[in-house]
Structure formats: C-alpha cells, structure tokens
Amino acid sequence: MGSLPVPDALRWWWQVSNRRDEYARAVLTLSLVVLSISWYAWLTRKSRKADLPLPPGPRGLPLVGNLLSLHPELHVYFAELARTYGPITKLQLGKKLGIVITSPSLAKEVLKDHDTTFANRDVPAAGRAATYGGLDIVWTPYGPEWRLLRKVCVREMLGTATLDAVYGLRQREVRRTVEYLYSRTGSQVNIGEQMFLTVLNLITSMLWGDTIKGEERSRLGAEFRQAIGEMTALLGMPNVSEFFPILARFDLQGVERKMKVLASQFDRMFDSMIHKRLNIMDEKGREESHDFLQFLLNLKDQGDAKNSLTMNQVKALLMDMVIGGTDTTSNTVEWAIAELMNKPETMRKAQEELERVVGKDNIVEESHLPKLHYLQAVMKEVLRLHPALPLFIPHCPSSSCAVGGYMVPKGARVFVNAWAIHRDPVLWDKPLTFDPERFLIDGKWDYTGKDLSYIPFGSGRRICAGMAMAERMVMYALASLLHSFDWELPEGAKLQLTEKFGIVLKKATPLVAVPTPRLSDPKLYAGC
C-alpha cells in the first residue's frame, strides 16, 4: 500500500489511522465528505445555471432585434407581450437584452429575493447628462455612495420630522393655489399646470427658500413644466445609440445633446442659488439658514471622507428633487380630479366626507388627512390605475441571476411593469374600473412594497425615497381642491382619460376645468 502513489491528504489520513488517532481521523473524514458534497453541489448549480434558458419573447430581426416593433406606449405593448409569452419576457434591443417582468411573484424575485443583485440601474445617456454623470440617488450604483445619498434624502429632506417641520410651507403654497383658483371662478384652469407650480414652489422653498409668485407664476410655471416634461420624455425615450455600442458616440437622435441643453437651464439656477448662499454664509455665518441646500453645503464642507459630497453631487440631488418631485405629484392630482369628474357620484362621496371631517366653515389642515379614509382610497385607486412611473426606473443585474426558471444575464435592462400588474384581472376585480371602495373593503394595501400586487412606489432597496412626501402632498392638495371647489368641464368639452407613456405617466390631453366655490365665506379662500 505504501508503495502506491497516494495523494498527500490521503497519505496523511493513512498515517493518522495507523497511529490510532480516532478523533483526528473522524475530523479529516468528515472534512473530506463535506468538501466532496460542496464540490458536487457547486458543479450541479453551475450546470443548472448554464442550462437555464433565456425567457421567451418575440422573434427579432437580424442586428436590430425587436427595436422596430416597439410601440410608443411601451407599458401597453409590454402588457400585450406578457399575454402571449408569459410573465417574464425577453426583447432583443440591438445589442442590449431587455427583460420585462409582469407578475407579483417574479417582481418579488427581482425586487425582494435578489434585491442586491438587481439594485443597480442601467444608466441611460440622458440620465448621465441630466445628473452630472449619474451622481444622483436615482442612477448611482448600489454601494456606500448610494447609501449616503439615500440617508441624506430620506432622513434629512424627506423624513417624518422634516416633513412635519415644513408643514407651514405646504400650507402656504396650497392656500395660495386655492386663492388663485378662487380668482379664476367661472374660468378655465389647467389643473396639472397649477398643481405643478404648487409643488415646484413647495420644493424650491424646501431647498433654498425661494418661491414663484405674482405675475411670474403662470409664465415660469409653464416654462418649468415644459422643460421638466421634455426631460422626462428624453429619459423614457428608446435611444438607438445606446443599443449599439459602436454608435454611442454619435448620439443619432440627439438625446444626449437635448438633455444637456435642458439640464444647463437648471444648472444655472442651481449655481445662482449656491452662489447666493455661499455669500450669505461668508457674511452671516453658516447657521443662518436651515433649508436643504444649507444642509448639503454643510455636509460638503464638514463631512469626513466617507460622509462628504462633491459640489456636483449636491447639484445632482437638487436636480432629483426638482424633477422627481414635481411632475409625478402634479400628474397624480390631475389624474385624480379627472377620474372623479368622470364619476360624479364618487366625487360627491369624497366631498361629503370632507364636509363631515373638515366642515364647510373651515379649511383643510393636514391634521384632517388621517380621518379622510374615503379620500385615502381615492388616492390609492388613482395610483393603482395610473402609477406615476409605470415601468419604474429599469434595473440592471450586477451578475447573471435565475428568475422564474429563466436566466437573466448580467447587464440586462430589466423592466417591472407595475401598470400591468395593477390591471391584472387575476389579481384585481374589474381592474379597469375606477373604484376606490375596493381599498375600503380590503385594508391591507399600503405603499411599502410588501405585497407585490400593489407597488405604486416600487419595492426593495430602490423604493421611491419621496414616498412619504408624495403621499402628504397629493392628499393635502386633493382634499383642498375638492373641499373648496366643485369642478366642471368647459361647455362643449369632453373628458379624456387617455394616457401618454413616458418615464412618468401623463394624461395625453391636459385637464382643463372650471372651478366653482363650495364654501360660503370668501375669507376661507384667502391665501397665507
């Protein structure tokens, strides 16, 4: 036996056994068994992983794949593909592989079970151009820098304590809007535009204290809304230059160039506000202001290596707040008023609840909101039918991962179609009907992403950082508009509920309505 060529590990085992060291022999034997089992399991997993197929999907053309078959209303097109190919679908977008998820169980695998793997983004050229190279909370890769940005936003800007502290700002802007609408009694009003300006004033007040008022209100509100609308459109636009690496530098559709022009408008505004604030800090000291800009500048100057920001990161966060908070919130309120106008009985129930809770001789305060259960259900139903981001921000796996028995390769662009999940007849009774009472019958639905059948703000690590602020602002604005006014279409107009796809879901036709005061005392329409 000793003359045979024996591997070192086995030779040592033989020698140990000859010395009758039972304990050492048992330990060594167990180690070899565990090692063998682990090696076999690894080989098996590797084999299975390699054998997993890609998800099914429509056949594409040579070179371009499925690019030419994409429909402008991507959320609807993706939902149609799911009916044909199943809840996980593959699309070949030039050299880029797209994966579409259209069921709660598979969304759970992506957003919960394999959350860390899918926590990164596939950053588009438009996103990099808008956010100083992708330095904001939306596009920054998952890791220490992203965790710092998330902590800054959620704890300092959008946490409960901060939102409570700036209630006065929300009240001021909403009351100013009510006063303006009262001055427009009997006239046509663009609901989305007015709500956009309300939210823009609120956010800029929270950021650096300025607000748009007087004659500038309509002019600047329209300009800002158009600019942000164009930016979100560019972010949601399929960009051919990204699907073929060899074409990336040519920017064939001008997406990157257009975004840089739009972003420069905001960059000049940010630079102006930062310059003013730095001058104030030099003259009066850094503790003079307590808004978000001041906090960011303090963090930039005083933070240690692990907890400091660059100036471009500061401006990227400001960009997130201005773009991410305005269009989404104003669109949700616009959708809510439109759906309620389409169902007058539902609007009447919401207004009756407001009369009981608030009273017709009083104005809405945020303290009333927790008691407005029917209006809460209205908001939830609006977000079910018209989620602000119908496909969320696409995810990008950091390594290849099995989902639903199929392989999702590293670097794929992964879409979760929340819009389709929210309209699935298997999950929802009469899913295309606007029915807030479904949320009163079943009170389990919330915005935290626990149940993947209802995910208007997403789920997992990348769940929307502005969820708490959006909920408060939508509820407060909607309650104030319904309590203060009745709403009708202009004579001869027809209500349109058609959607227009973008990274943010909008009404294809802006809602123009005529307000009529509901409260008897004109003093209740005075602004703050």
TrEMBL record:
Molecular-function GO terms, alphabetical: heme binding; iron ion binding; monooxygenase activity; oxidoreductase activity, acting on paired donors, with incorporation or reduction of molecular oxygen
Keywords linked to the UniProt accession: Heme, Iron, Metal-binding, Monooxygenase, Oxidoreductase
Protein's UniProt keywords contain Amino-acid biosynthesis: no
UniProt KW Iron keyword: yes
Binding site for heme: C464
Alphabetized InterPro entries for the sequence: Cyt_P450 (IPR001128), Cyt_P450_CS (IPR017972), Cyt_P450_E_grp-I (IPR002401), Cyt_P450_sf (IPR036396)
Family statement: Belongs to the cytochrome P450 family.
Protein name: Flavonoid 3'-monooxygenase-like
Species: Nelumbo nucifera
